[in-house]
Amino acid sequence: MVADVSAAAKGKVYLVGAGPGDPELLTLKAATLLRSAGLVLYDDLVPPAVIAMAGRQALVVSVGKRCGVKHVQQAEIHTLMIEAARQNLSVVRLKSGDPLVFGRAAEEMDALRAADVPFEVVPGITAAFAAAALIGCSLTDRRTASSVEFYTGHKAADQGPSQESPAEAATRVVYMPGRSFRSFAEDRLQAGDAADLPCCVISRAAQPEQSIQWSTLSELGGVVPGPAPVLLLTGWALAPAAARDAGERANDSAPLSVAPDCVPAHDL
Ligand SMILES: C[S@@+](CC[C@H](N)C(=O)[O-])C[C@H]1O[C@@H](n2cnc3c(N)ncnc32)[C@H](O)[C@@H]1O
Predict the structure, then answer these.
(1) 181 lines ligand 1 (CB under 6 A)
(2) Quick check: is 196 catalytic?
(3) Predicted confidence band at 9 (pLDDT cuts at 50, 70, 90)?
(4) Does 148 map to a domain?
(5) Considering the entire predicted model, what is its pTM?
(6) Which end of the chain is more exposed for a tag (fewer CB within 10 A), N or C?
(7) Across 12-27, average pLDDT
């Protein structure tokens, strides 16, 4: 019999990316680990359809924090993972998107290393990639964008002001941008970004209610985002997608023209 090498090993913790929401965007490895885990600890943004993939033997526990309101303290999550692994359970620590992008994985890996608990990271599709796929925009473009920068609008309380450096030809992706983009737009304009820089606010990428709002940097302050989670993208690499969207909206509002050789049915 061939051993199932991707089944969850006992006494080990897996930091697993659940992707942006669509269960079909989960990796095969994540699905296999979920089916065989003894304990699943999941965050708020992980959709129910993914949580439902856990096997019947698994204890499934929400350890989410919403809008900074902590239901479970970070230290408690560390203790839960470490204790369960020491009791020889296979633990899946399930995080939305990719576990290594704005997911406090650094603290969790530090705690696991300090406790000498074996762990493995299983990558997932981060929200930026789902958002870029949704609007059909390459995050890099050799003509306009030579780098991609991931930011967060939300920082640890004890951190000082952000050290953002102005980056020419960068696509910026802002995770947890908050509900108002006014100060972000003002800061970027002051840093020298162009007023007509394309911006896109994407709500719930890769989920049934996904929505897209386009603007320029100078208009961004007036954008009211859709329901959370929301991602903000800016940069010249977005320009072709923005132009396509503007073209589609212009076509939608243009009166229907009837081609000369096209006779309405009631005239036949
Ligand atoms: C705590 S961070 C986690 C990011 C996650 N680890 C990832 O790689 O996508 C949560 C933020 O990710 C963004 N996000 C996550 N899923 C999203 C989605 N489906 N659509 C839009 N933004 C999303 C939002 O900015 C949200 O506030």
Answers:
(1) no
(2) no
(3) confident
(4) no
(5) 0.85
(6) N
(7) 97
User: What pLDDT, on a 0 to 100 scale, did the predictor assign at position 71?
Assistant: 75
Cα 112 to Cα 87, 93, 98, 218, distances in angstroms: 14, 12, 18, 45
Report which residue type is found at 92: V
If asked whether residues 20 and 95 sit together in one domain, one would say yes
* Cα distance between residue 33 and residue 193, in whole Å: 44
Q: Supply 42's token pair.
A: 């999941």
Confidence band, pLDDT 50/70/90 cuts, at residue 169? confident
127 ligand 1 Cβ < 6 A = yes
- On whether residue 91 sits in a domain, the answer given is yes
Q: Of residues 22, 29, 65, 141, which has the active-site annotation?
A: 65
CA distance 11 to 91: 8
Q: Hey, which bits of the chain come out as E strands?
A: 12-17, 39-42, 59-62, 65-66, 69-70, 90-95, 119-122, 147-152, 170-175, 198-203, 211-216, 230-234
Domain that holds residue 108: 13-128
CATH of the domain at 211: 3.30.950.10
The C-alpha atoms of residue 123 and residue 2 are separated, in whole angstroms, by 25
pLDDT over 50 at 201, yes or no = yes
Has residue 264 got a pLDDT over 70? no
65 is catalytic: yes
If one counts the domains in the chain, the total is 2
In this structure, is residue 186 part of a structural domain? yes
* Residue at 115 is within a domain: yes
The separation between CA 243 and the C-alpha centre of its own chain, rounded to angstroms, equals 24
Same domain, 17 and 123: yes
Q: How many residues does the chain have?
A: 268
Give the 3-state secondary structure of residue 192: coil
